[in-house]
Each structure stands twice: as C-alpha cells, then as structure tokens.
From TrEMBL:
Family: Belongs to the short-chain dehydrogenases/reductases (SDR) family.
Residue ranges occupied by any Ketoreductase domain in the UniProt entry: 8-194
Record text on subunit structure and interactions: Homotetramer.
Protein name: Ketoreductase domain-containing protein
Provenance organism: Gouania willdenowi
GO biological process, one term: glucose metabolic process
PANTHER family, per the entry: D-ERYTHRULOSE REDUCTASE, D-ERYTHRULOSE REDUCTASE-RELATED
Length: 244
C-alpha cells in the first residue's frame, strides 16, 4: 500500500527519541513537511542533521504557556501525532502527587492542548485533518506498578473519542494507537528485566514485543486517506495481547 503525504504538513510531539522520532522521519520520507516537537535540544539537533527538511521546536509540553508560545507560529498543520509521554513506576500505595501531576501534564494535558492549537487551525481553514494519539495497551489492562501511567492512557483513549465526536463534523479524524511493549528508552525502563519481559511476551499471542516500525506503520495508516472512514478508534498494535 503506497502512502504519500506530499503537500501535507505534519506535527509530531516527542519526536526526539523512540516512536516519535521514527514517525517524524517516516513522515518526511513520505513527502510531508514535518515539525518535530520535543524538549531536549540535542535530540532535535541530531534529528535535523539526519533529515534537514524537519523543522525543530524545543519546548516542555507539560508547560501550557510555553507550549502556546512555542507553537504560535507553526502555520498550517494537516496531520498531528500526539506521541510525547512519560512513565515512572511505583506501587499504587506509593504514588505521590508530583508523580501523578507530572505524568498527567504530559500524557493527557498536552494531548488536549496541542490538539486544540492544531484543530483550531484545521477548523478555520476548513480543510480537515487527521490526528493520532499514541496511547498504550496499558489503557485497557492493569499492569503492576503502572497505576498512574495506565490511568493517563485510559484518559487518552476517552479523550480521543470525545475529540472524534466534536471534531468529526469539521472532517478532522481522531484515532489512537495502543501498542504493546516496544523496546525504546521507555520500554527499557519498565521491561528490561528478563523475568518480567518473559512473562509479558508469554501473554502476547504473537510471542514478541512490537518493533518501532510496527507502531509507525499503523500511525501512518491512520493519518492517511487510506483510513478516511475511521474515526474515534483505539487500535491495538499488540500482537493480540488485549484480545486474550
Ligand atoms: P521514549 O521515552 O523513547 O520517547 C519519548 C519522547 O517524548 C522523547 O523524545 C521525550 O523527550 C519526549 N517527551 C517526554 N516528555 C516530554 C515533554 N514534557 N515535553 C516534550 N517532549 C517530551 O518513549 P517511546 O518512544 O517508547 O514512547 C512514545 C509513545 O508510545 C508514548 O506515548 C508512550 O506512552 C507510548 N507507548 C510506548 C510503549 C513502549 O513500550 N515503549 C508501549 C505503549 C505505548 P525527552 O527524552 O527529552 O524527555
């Protein structure tokens, strides 16, 4: 299936590392003008070195006002990938206010805020658009020590559906992808212990974690006009984990 984004502009959050970085590069390869947003300047420097057509924006997306300022001149955006997120592991009874607030600020609040900024432009131009929120299998199942992360991704799933409902009339589609474990920096943080990872892979019918490209390809499909009638879904990229 040939996917082209020639003539389209895309914005990817959390584009410095992992899935976001690979998504930004894939979109550029497919012809999109890409704006890459993340908070570590050295990641943006190396990304632009790798793909000079990418426009970098450095901002901490947990900061509402800084995000407004950083994105005020982004111009026309047709495709948005809300990918930035953080995780920190702790038993439920040890979760602190700070861990909760930091996680929800990035994983949920920034999805709402960046989408507002981008969707207002899409609505004003009347040209429609496609938004993909990167959620997780953790939105739909309990994972030990992941209370805050699971709750934040559950919120992303529901937010995705409300956005799809309210933005659909403007031909703005909003969907989520829900990957299983991917061995990025975030994946290593939670799943590098072989005992733990073996237990998880044994619950995945395909018997393996997802590769970054498995997730990127699904995001590209949902952004593209090949999925023109798909709106408001949370699509597992999990080898069947959530089916069991
Ligand atoms: P990584 O940790 O590898 O990359 C996350 C990126 O987001 C980094 O570039 C990071 O920048 C950026 N980011 C984090 N916080 C902020 C912030 N406040 N402002 C701006 N940028 C920020 O994560 P993955 O690539 O693994 O994850 C990408 C998405 O996929 C996330 O939404 C995650 O929840 C989801 N996911 C991941 C899975 C996995 O196993 N890896 C499984 C299921 C879903 P910096 O490094 O500078 O903080």
């Amino acid at each position: 299936m040939e996917i082209s984004f020639t003539g389209k502009s895309a914005l990817v959050t959390g584009a410095g590392k992992g899935i976001g970085r690979a998504t930004a590069l894939a979109l550029a390869r497919c012809g999109a003008n890409v704006t890459a947003v993340t908070r570590t300047q050295t990641d943006l420097d190396s990304l632009v070195q790798e793909c000079p057509s990418i426009s970098p924006v450095c901002v901490d997306l947990a900061d509402w006002d800084a995000t407004d300022a950083a994105l005020q001149n982004i111009g026309t955006i047709d495709l948005l990938v809300n990918n930035a997120a953080r995780t920190s592991l702790q038993p439920f009874l040890e979760v602190t206010q700070d861990q909760f607030d930091q996680t929800f600020s990035v994983n949920v609040k920034s999805v709402l805020h960046v989408s507002q900024i981008v969707a207002r432009g899409m609505k004003a131009r009347g040209s429609g658009g496609s938004i993909v929120n990167v959620s997780s299998q953790a939105s739909q199942c309990a994972l030990r020590d992941h209370a805050v992360y699971c709750a934040s991704k559950g919120a992303v799933d529901t937010l995705t559906k409300v956005m799809a409902l309210e933005l659909g009339p403007f031909q703005i589609r909003v969907n989520a992808v829900n990957p299983t474990v991917v061995m990025t920096e975030m994946g290593h943080l939670a799943w590098s212990d072989p005992e733990k990872s073996k237990k998880m892979t044994s619950r995945i019918p395909l018997g393996r974690f997802a590769e970054v490209e498995d997730v990127v390809n699904t995001i590209l499909f949902l952004l593209s006009d090949k999925s023109n009638m798909i709106n408001g879904i949370t699509l597992p990229v999990d080898g069947g984990f959530l089916a069991c």
